[in-house]
User: Which sequence fits this backbone?
């Protein structure tokens, strides 16, 4: 008496693919399974609730060709955000390509700091240095509609991604300029400058896990501080009196960045942790000249 072969369900297929991705690319199974499930939802056009409801359906009921190809990309180590072409950030979804860094939750702390210094009812000028996908500039612009935001990047490819995101999300109060740091805004001053510059040291072992992201947006000299030094030293030339500078930095760079702010004459200096409790952002204010 023959026994019928067990039917492979959609849930079986997703879990099996997650195991294969872990075996090929490493990582934690639970996190990888979430990535594979999200990929399945996107390629099969299922909501999370629909995917859960249909996990007991036979896998053969679904057209899995596009999904299978994308699982192979995950197994090759490509980040999910690049496979999907998008990444959530601060309650919005941004287009991403390998020309830009993948927006990360840690950077949302920088946005929160900026919004805290920009009251909704006041007009303000904001400069975002190294905008990449535009996630910082566009989020600030959409949350503070009276602000005029200038977003700079040296990469024309990154600027194309950022401008696409601004158009998709309806951020009409952002202008984009190609610029190596402050070059394109010579003589201009802003109420707030934000930057998430490269801050990884050359040779840092963590770079091996970031191989698909643009190196120029990650690495900044032998100690990771080269671009932060440049930004902090020159920011006062581009801030209104009383204006604020805020930068993202590496988890072990807070003391060094605070010292850069002190040397540059910034007052009210403070370090801010990310959601995991790691040092992430330094904020400082340009002193207002005392009238005599």
Assistant:
């Amino acid at each position: 008496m023959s026994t019928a072969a067990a039917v492979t369900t959609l849930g079986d297929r997703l879990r099996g693919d997650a195991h294969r991705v872990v075996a090929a690319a490493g990582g934690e199974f639970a996190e990888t399974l979430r990535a594979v499930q999200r990929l399945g939802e996107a390629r099969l056009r299922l909501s999370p609730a629909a995917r859960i409801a249909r996990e007991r359906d036979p896998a053969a009921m679904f057209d899995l060709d596009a999904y299978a190809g994308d699982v192979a990309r995950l197994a090759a180590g490509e980040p999910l955000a690049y496979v999907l072409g998008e990444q959530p950030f601060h309650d919005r979804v941004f287009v991403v390509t390998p020309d830009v860094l993948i927006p990360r939750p840690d950077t949302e702390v920088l946005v929160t700091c900026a919004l805290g210094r920009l009251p909704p009812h006041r007009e303000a000028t904001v400069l975002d240095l190294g905008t990449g996908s535009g996630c910082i500039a566009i989020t600030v612009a959409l949350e503070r509609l009276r602000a005029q935001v200038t977003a700079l990047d040296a990469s024309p490819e990154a600027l194309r991604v950022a401008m696409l995101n601004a158009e998709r999300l309806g951020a009409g109060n952002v202008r984009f300029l190609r610029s190596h740091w402050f070059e394109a805004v010579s003589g201009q001053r802003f109420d707030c400058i934000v930057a998430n510059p490269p801050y990884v040291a050359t040779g840092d072992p963590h770079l091996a896990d970031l191989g698909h992201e643009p190196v120029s947006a990650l690495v900044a000299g032998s100690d990771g501080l080269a671009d932060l030094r440049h930004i902090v030293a020159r920011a006062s030339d581009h801030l209104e009196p009383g204006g604020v500078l805020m930068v993202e930095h590496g988890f072990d760079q807070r003391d060094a960045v605070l010292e850069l702010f002190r040397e540059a004459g910034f007052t009210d200096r403070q370090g801010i942790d990310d959601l995991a409790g790691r040092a992430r952002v330094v904020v400082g204010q340009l002193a207002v000249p005392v009238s005599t």
